[in-house]
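Final report, Chapter 2: Outcomes

The project's central promise was a pipeline that accepts a single protein chain and returns its three-dimensional structure in a standardized token representation, suitable for archiving and comparison. That pipeline is now operational. To close this chapter, we reproduce one record exactly as it appears in the project archive, with the input sequence first and the structure output second.
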Amino acid sequence: MYHHKGSFSHLITGALTPGRQPWQRYLAELIGTFAIVFAGCGAIISNAHSSGALGTPGVCFAFGFVVTAMIYTLGPVSAAHFNPAVTIAFTLVKRFPARQMPPYFAAQIIGACLASGLHQVIYPAADLRAAQYGATLPTVSLTSAFILEIVLTFLLMLVVMAMATDKRVPGPVPGLAIGLTVIFDALFGGPISGASMNPVRSLAPALFAGGPALHLMWLYTLAPIIGACLAAVCYEALRDSRDFAQGAPADLEGAMQLEPGLSRHKQPAAESG
């Protein structure tokens, strides 16, 4: 039997830290989401300030690197959702307790808005206007952008499901796999739809920029949620064994057992040793 004790997926989902306080999870979600919007959308604004010095690849790498860093830093605390679409998808497939959704959403929204608020303090008004605070705006039809956001988020969430809910994931794979997925999604999707994949990543700059960015929040809310939910259901269908499945965070298993309808899984025999 495959021996998975101590795998990195345990670290990234908090499996080695039972008894963690709820406020610690919420603060981790706030900080992680803040960092993603601050660095990622900040890169878009800095690109406008520097007349395109970063370019599309630079912005994409900024998003991918900060996601990777926050996963390694805060994954053991909150499972590093940093994205309401991810939280909803985990809940849909019974990998996250539904009663934890509202505080996770609140933390993510607050963190993202704090980041955009700090951008307003740091950057010149002209740069903020030019970059729309890093807001996501499509350059194609709304239908095309909607479909693309579903596909981009599907690919991202498929990787997230494997990394966060499978105990067999080895070594330093999860952060790198998810960060690289963000980068390649953004490289080809960014110039088309903005490659949001995350409702709060779009919401925070849109609240400050207003106008079209705010009017299009329906697209950047619904499409990522649909894509993430489809990916979560797909991965559960592909999962070869429930023995290695876990929640995200995994140390919420106690809560999962108390809440009706949440997934439970049999522990492999190797774990007893």
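Archive annotation: The radius of gyration is 18 Å.
This record, like all others produced under the grant, will remain available to the consortium after the project formally closes.
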